[in-house]
Design brief:
It is a single chain. The chain is an alpha/beta fold. It has two domains: 2-11 and 277-400, Lyase, Ornithine Decarboxylase, Chain A, domain 1 (Beta Barrel); 16-275, Alanine racemase (TIM Barrel, Alpha-Beta Barrel), CATH 3.20.20. The protein has 13 helices and 18 strands. Helix 9 runs parallel beside helix 10 (240-258). It is globular, with a radius of gyration of 23 Å. The chain binds pyridoxal-5'-phosphate. Pyridoxal-5'-phosphate is lined by residues 42, 44-45, 86, 185, 188-189, 224-227, 268-272. Pyridoxal-5'-phosphate (PLP) binds next to helix 11.
């Protein structure tokens, strides 16, 4: 409540100790399960220089997907040796910037990128370490995540179509690329372990085939991210250590089966690392009761700062900040302030009857919220504060109208 008084709402509040404990949970769980592993946080879930600093202190790497995210990492002085670059359509300029910064590895995801990257690396006089991203559509009757949905995606070279093989062959032949291994990412959020273990077995068999045919050396292996996050009380994910044990076991089994030395394992959590550390706080404004139907409770944010419910029907819980001790008396639909009927944050939130001026908080709002924020309706994007040791510090100020107009001309 004091924070909203000071910084206004909507307000995003991140808790530094939760970030650190999740970072340690990931690095501890994976290094327990598989010593030669590293955790590389997917910056797109929430990219901020303040966060990059914390991750650096915790020994966590950062995965970027654009030149803009590289600029954020650079602002924090984030070590280039801990940076990876993913994405299905990186531009020449982005690749030039990343290589100039000395980025540790780049995951190739598309045929034009092989030539482009080879030429950019050549111009800068280096041999760039790379991974090739494959898409492991396996046997359709195994699991819902491994049906044609995986073949029909813009990401990765499909193993099934033979494109992955061609990409590996070309990457090995490119003189300025140093192919370090294979990457895949199945999507998210993944609440089960089987998609990882099945895909790892399949990709390791593919890697063995590529070694036999083209001399592929498997120094590094990444099964991506996608670890689930508990957005709601009734859909809690498995502990991180379960993912770590299952992935480590599947990778070791693949190495044993195909005679590989154990490669470096790189995991790329996004939402599961940062999601729980962030809370969104809104102020209730207009309330519209439709007798016999429902009550719409409008707040001062919405799809401009959290588009996930509108974009993919994501669900959140809500609680009343200023009336936390009162029992809920019904279900209320939490609507945003944006001019779209689809701008609904929560379809049915259990709350004590909201009144204008109440503060409502949405926990587990730290991932893909402010990261995806827009200025739709020309609404300035919210402030973000980081709380540590009982102290709050502003890590991004609220935008002003001047910020919104800075790029326009009459
Ligand atoms: C988005 C992404 C991730 C992170 O996904 P989460 O669901 O946030 O864990 C990891 N790897 C790649 C390649 C991604 O695109």
């Amino acid at each position: 409540m004091d924070l909203v008084e000071e910084y206004d709402s909507p307000l995003y509040v991140y808790d530094e100790s939760t970030i650190r404990s999740m970072a340690r949970d990931f690095s501890g769980s994976f290094s327990n399960a598989y010593v030669n592993s590293r955790v590389s946080y997917s910056f797109k879930a929430f990219a901020s220089p303040a966060l990059a600093k914390i991750l650096e202190e915790e020994g966590i790497g950062v995965d970027i997907v654009s030149g803009g995210e590289l600029a954020v990492a650079r602002m924090a002085g984030f070590p280039a040796g801990e940076l990876n670059f993913n994405g299905n359509n990186k531009s020449r300029q982005e690749l030039e910037e990343a290589i100039a910064y000395g980025i540790a590895r780049i995951t190739i995801d598309g045929f034009p990128e092989i030539d482009l990257l080879n030429s950019v690396a050549g111009e800068q006089g280096i041999r760039q370490p790379v991974l090739v991203r494959v898409s492991p559509s396996v046997d359709a009757h195994s699991h819902r995540l491994t049906t044609t949905g995986i073949l029909d995606t813009k990401f990765g070279f499909s193993i099934e179509t033979g494109h992955a093989e061609l990409a590996i062959e070309q990457a090995i032949e490119a003189p300025n690329l140093d192919l370090r291994g294979i990457h895949f990412h199945l999507g998210s959020p993944i609440f089960e372990l089987e998609p990882y273990t099945e895909a790892i077995a399949y990709v390791m068999a593919f890697a063995a085939d590529m070694r036999d045919r083209y001399g592929l050396e498997l120094h590094e292996f990444s099964p991506g991210g996608g670890f689930a996050l508990g957005y709601k009380r009734d859909a809690l994910p498995l502990p991180i250590s379960d993912y770590a044990n299952a992935i480590a076991e599947a990778l070791r089994a693949g190495c044993d089966a195909h005679g590989f030395d154990e490669p470096l394992l790189i995991v790329e959590p996004g939402r599961a690392l940062i999601g729980r550390a962030g809370v969104a706080v809104y102020t209730v404004g207009a309330i519209k009761e439709i007798p016999g139907v429902r009550t719409y409770v409008s707040v001062d944010g919405g799809m401009g700062d959290n588009i996930r419910p509108a974009l993919y029907e994501s669900e959140y819980e809500a609680f009343s900040v200023n009336r936390a001790t009162e029992a809920p008396d019904g279900q209320y639909r939490i609507a945003g302030k944006y001019c779209e009927s689809g701008d609904i944050l929560i379809n049915e939130a259990s709350l004590p009857k909201p009144k204008p001026g109440d503060l409502i908080a949405l926990p587990a709002s730290g991932a893909y919220t402010v990261a995806m924020a827009s200025n739709y309706n020309m609404v300035p994007r919210p402030a973000i504060v980081m709380v540590a040791d009982g102290e709050a510090r502003l890590i991004r100020r609220r935008e002003t109208y001047d910020d919104l107009l800075a790029t326009s001309k009459v």
